[in-house]
Amino acid sequence: MSDPRAPRLAASVPVGQRVWGLALTRDDRKLYAANGLSNDVSVIDVASLRVVATIPAGDGPWGIAATP
Fold first, then answer.
1. In a domain, 5, yes or no
2. Residue 55 to residues 16, 21, 27, 49, 52, Cα–Cα distance (Å)
3. Cβ within 8 Å of residue 13, ≥6 positions away
4. d(CA 63, CA 8)
5. Residue 33 placed within a domain
6. How far apart are CA 55 and CA 42, in angstroms?
């Protein structure tokens, strides 16, 4: 029997290859994913769980930070 308190997958959003870093905006509206092998950053609208933009980021982005 599984533990009802255990974490479970609520949703998935297809982004680039090998997400190495994530950052959520202060207002919780956008999530940014640094895709190391795709050399880009995916911008995800949290409400719709859809990628709304893909930003070229050079060679192997591995981290990301969101500021106000």
1. no
2. 11, 14, 20, 17, 10
3. 42, 44, 49, 50, 51
4. 25
5. yes
6. 6
Rg of the chain over Cα atoms, rounded to whole angstroms, equals 14
Per the domain annotation, does 11 fall within a domain?
no
Three-state SS letters, the chain:
CCCCCCCCCCCCCCCCCCEEEEEECCCCCEEEEEECCCCEEEEEECCCCEEEEEEECCCCCCCCCCCC
- Give 33: exposed, middle or buried? Use CB within 10 Å, 0-12, 13-18, 19+: buried
With tokens 């591995």, the residue in question is 62
Does 38 have pLDDT greater than 90? yes
Query: pLDDT of 9-30, one tens digit each?
Result: 889 999 999 999 999 999 999 9
In DSSP terms, 22 is beta-bridged to 33
